Structure formats: structure tokens, C-alpha cells
């Protein structure tokens, strides 16, 4: 019986599980989306969210704790047959991802099921993603549409002009 036993073994030794968890989370922070199996994604998700919560604090002790838990892997890009160092995973975590989620109380990742199955063992594949930047813009467009539809019954109509948005800023509306 597995009563009150946390975590999954995933058919690996404890050292292999730890290394796999670190590698998956580092890849998630580097690419912001990864494709993996459902069990691995469910195992990695809480670890990634704890690290993002540490990054939201932004203190030196939080940075040292994140390095101890995750390691400090380099982000490398390959262009024209040459490799170029773009920074480290911890730097990206604390300078980009932490500030992105300052106003979000949790739920920094999402698991999206894919219709694809892995060749070889037919394992169910999922996408493990960081919740993106486009969330706020979708909310703004929905609220602008609600305001526009609510004012149609009155004498003045409100239309959103895309050219005015780009020239005057994100909140510009053209009234007739």
C-alpha cells in the first residue's frame, strides 16, 4: 500500500529522479514550454512552482536556495555552427520569470494534453507550459468588448479602432 507516500518512482533510482526533475525544470524555464509524459509533468509541476515562488521573493537567500535546488545551468544558443552563451537559468528565473508573476498568487504552469502518443511505448504526451504574457491582453480585449456591447443600446456607439490603438496607446477608442 502507498498510503501517505509522496512522489512517483517513475522506474528510476532516486539520483536519476532528482537529475531528471532538475533537467526538466531547467528546460521548462529556458524554453517556457516542454513536451513530456503526463506522470513526469505532474511530478515536475510543484517543483517548478516552488522555484518561481522563490524567484518572486528575489532575495539573495532565495537565489542561493534556488541554485542549491536546481543548479545553475547555462543557456546556450547554436547559430551558424557556433555556440553562444545567453546567460543562465537562474538569471532568467530571477530577472524575467519572477517579476512576470509578482501579481499572480500561484498557478504559474499549465498541463495541456496532446493527441499524440510517443512512438515506442505509446506514452501519453502533454505540454507543460508556463502561463504566458498574453493572459493580460486577452482580459483587456474581453473587457473592452463588454464595454462596447453595453453602450450599443445608448445613443453613442463605441468602436475600437486598431490604428488608433497603435498610434495613441493601448487604451485608445474612437467615439463617433
Give the arrangement of secondary structure elements:
Layout: H1 14-31, E1 33-37, H2 38-57, H3 60-70, E2 74-79, E3 82-88, H4 89-100, E4 109-117, E5 124-130, H5 135-150, E6 158-159, H6 162-168, E7 174-175
Antiparallel strand pairs: 1-5, 2-3, 4-5, 6-7
Helix content: 40-55%
Whole-number mean pLDDT: 83
Order of helices and strands: HEHHEEHEEHEHE
Gyration radius, in Å: 22 Å
Give me the secondary-structure category: alpha+beta
CATH topology of the largest domain, anyone? 50s Ribosomal Protein L17, Chain: A
* DSSP summary: helix tally: 6
Shape: globular
Report the span from N to C terminus.
Answer: 70 Å
DSSP strand tally: 7
**What is the CATH level 1 assignment of the largest domain?**
Alpha Beta
- CATH architecture label of the largest domain: Alpha-Beta Complex
For the sheet with most strands, the description reads:
3 strands, antiparallel
Low-confidence stretches: 151-158, 160-176
CATH superfamily of the largest domain: Ribosomal protein L17
Identify the strand order in the major beta sheet: 1-5-4
Number of domains: 2
Task: Tell me the fraction of residues in β-strands, as a range.
Answer: 15-25%
Summarize the structure in words.
With about 180 residues, this protein is α+β, with helices and mostly antiparallel strands. It folds into 2 domains: about 15-135, 50s Ribosomal Protein L17, Chain: A (Alpha-Beta Complex), CATH 3.90.1030; about 135-175, no CATH class. Helices cover about 50% and strands about 20% of the residues. It is built from 6 helices and 7 strands; from the N terminus they run H-E-H-H-E-E-H-E-E-H-E-H-E. A 3-stranded antiparallel beta sheet has the order 1-5-4. It has a two-stranded antiparallel sheet with strand order 2-3. Strands 6-7 form a two-stranded antiparallel sheet. A hairpin with a 2-residue loop joins strand 2 and strand 3. Helix 1 (about 15-30) crosses helix 2 (about 40-55) and helix 2 (about 40-55) packs antiparallel against helix 3. It starts with 13 loop residues before the first helix and ends with a strand.
Amino acid at each position: 500500500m502507498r498510503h501517505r507516500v509522496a512522489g512517483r518512482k517513475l522506474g528510476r533510482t532516486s539520483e536519476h529522479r532528482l537529475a531528471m526533475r532538475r533537467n526538466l525544470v531547467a528546460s521548462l524555464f529556458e524554453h517556457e514550454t516542454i513536451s513530456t509524459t503526463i506522470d513526469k509533468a505532474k511530478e515536475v509541476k510543484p517543483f517548478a512552482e516552488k522555484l518561481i515562488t522563490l524567484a518572486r521573493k528575489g532575495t539573495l537567500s532565495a537565489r542561493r536556495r534556488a541554485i542549491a535546488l536546481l543548479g545553475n545551468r547555462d543557456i546556450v544558443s547554436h547559430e551558424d555552427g557556433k555556440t553562444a552563451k545567453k546567460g543562465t537559468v537562474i538569471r532568467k528565473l530571477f530577472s524575467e520569470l519572477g517579476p512576470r508573476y509578482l501579481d499572480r498568487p500561484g498557478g504559474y504552469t499549465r498541463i495541456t494534453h496532446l493527441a499524440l502518443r510517443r512512438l515506442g511505448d505509446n506514452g501519453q504526451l502533454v505540454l507543460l507550459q508556463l502561463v504566458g504574457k498574453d493572459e493580460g491582453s486577452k482580459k483587456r480585449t474581453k473587457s473592452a468588448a463588454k464595454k462596447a456591447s453595453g453602450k450599443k443600446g445608448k445613443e453613442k456607439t463605441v468602436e475600437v479602432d486598431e490604428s488608433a490603438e497603435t498610434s495613441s496607446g493601448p487604451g485608445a477608442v474612437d467615439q463617433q
